[in-house]
Amino acid sequence: MNKKKKIEPLAGEALLKKVKELDSLSKEEKAKECGYYTTTKNGVERVNMMKFLNALIDAEGIELDSTSNSNGRGGRSASYRISVQSNGNLLIGSAYTKQMGLQQGDEFVITLGKKHIHLKQIDGAKEDVEATA
């Protein structure tokens, strides 16, 4: 029996690169070539399309699982880009502070670099946070 060695499923940039190389194949063949299949006891190969498609979504950096506000209302999600406002303020919104687990009253020491802002929490309980402006 000709036994093909199963490859470890590709992820991230390696997955994206391989899928582009396999442009002419069907999606099932692409999934199989990228390692997204299992072999049954009877030797039948089954393609796991859900794992393959989820890996592609992750590799592209698409966020499907949004974390909604606790009150059930949808809000703006963090885009990881901010702009200086017309009044000169630089506002870091609640999407970022919630993601970092910050609470009202948390205090930081601000250190300015050439192209970054470094925040260090005063109580020392949290890790250092760095934002690039």
From TrEMBL:
<dbReference type="InterPro" id="IPR027360">
    <property type="entry name" value="AbrB-like"/>
</dbReference>
<dbReference type="InterPro" id="IPR007159">
    <property type="entry name" value="SpoVT-AbrB_dom"/>
</dbReference>
<keyword id="KW-0238">DNA-binding</keyword>
<dbReference type="GO" id="GO:0001217">
    <property type="term" value="F:DNA-binding transcription repressor activity"/>
</dbReference>
<dbReference type="GO" id="GO:0000976">
    <property type="term" value="F:transcription cis-regulatory region binding"/>
</dbReference>
<dbReference type="Pfam" id="PF14250">
    <property type="entry name" value="AbrB-like"/>
</dbReference>
<feature type="domain" description="SpoVT-AbrB">
    <location>
        <begin position="79"/>
        <end position="124"/>
    </location>
</feature>
<protein>
    <recommendedName>
        <fullName>SpoVT-AbrB domain-containing protein</fullName>
    </recommendedName>
</protein>
<dbReference type="GO" id="GO:0032993">
    <property type="term" value="C:protein-DNA complex"/>
</dbReference>
